Amino acid sequence: MDKTFEKFLRSGIDLSLIGIERREDNASYFCTPKGASIFEWAGVDGIHYCFVRGFGGMVFAVSPMNSAQDFVHPIARDFADFLRLLLACGDAAALEQAWMWDEAQFAAFLTGNDATASQKNLETFDAAFQEAVQAATTANLRGKDLPPAGKEAAGDNVPPTDFRAYEAWRKNNG
Questions:
Q1: Which residue has better confidence, 143 or 37?
Q2: d(CA 141, CA 22)
Q3: Is pLDDT of 54 > 90?
Q4: Contacts with 10 (C-beta within 8 Å, 6 or more apart), sequence order
Q5: Type and span of the H or E element at 62
Q6: H helix intervals, 47-102
Q7: Apex CA 61: angle with CA 60 and CA 67, to 5°?
């Protein structure tokens, strides 16, 4: 399993602000590829996102309302790219529909579908992200014998809780 995806699952970060949701049922559709592992849903028209066995960490969008030849499309090289694309586009709809547009149409979609107020509010995302990173860090440090010196006791490999700083830290620490 992709390491970024494992970290994401442990973090408990809610991506509903950018158009996708996690479900417990994850029942596949008639057009879901065999060997698919569904991890998120668009919440409309049965659209879901998955990994497919045999394709490494590549992320696919499955759109049951499309015509037969267009049910499934690769949308990201791996889960980290999927997250980057989500954050850059502001909504999963852009990723799921991009296969059918040229560059001008894609740009028009992004321009015509501005982020909602909650999506624009990076502070809301940062707060959720900080809470998830703090919880994950606490869980990872639980049960370890650490001196009571706080962050220094855990070494330099403790992730920052600010999203932008985390991105820089992640690039350096994988």
A1: 37
A2: 26
A3: yes
A4: 136, 139
A5: strand 59-62
A6: 79-89, 92-97
A7: 125
Q: Distance between CA atoms of 74 and 121, rounded to whole angstroms?
A: 29
Q: Residues 50, 38: contact at Cβ < 8 Å?
A: yes
How much is the average pLDDT of 26-32?
Answer: 91
Residue (of 155, 156, 154) closest to 139 by Cα position: 154
Beta sheet of 72-76, edge-to-edge order: 36-41, 48-52, 59-62, 72-76
> Would you list the DSSP string of 106-156?
HHHHHHHSPPPHHHH-HHHHHHHHHHHHHHHHHHHHTT----SSTHHHH-T
Phi, psi of 40 (to 5 degrees): -150, 160
Give bridge partners of residue 48 from the DSSP assignment: 41, 62
Write b or e for each residue in 44-70: b if 16 or more Cβ atoms lie within 10 A of its Cβ, otherwise e.
eebbbbbbbeeeebbbbbbbeebeeee
What span, in angstroms and rounded, lies between the C-alpha atoms of 93 and 40?
13
pLDDT at 155 over 60: no
pLDDT for the residue 43:
87
Identity at 77, one-letter amino acid code: R
What b-and-e string marks burial along 87-110, b requiring 16 or more CB atoms within 10 Å of the CB?
eebbbbbbbbbbeeeeeeeeeebb
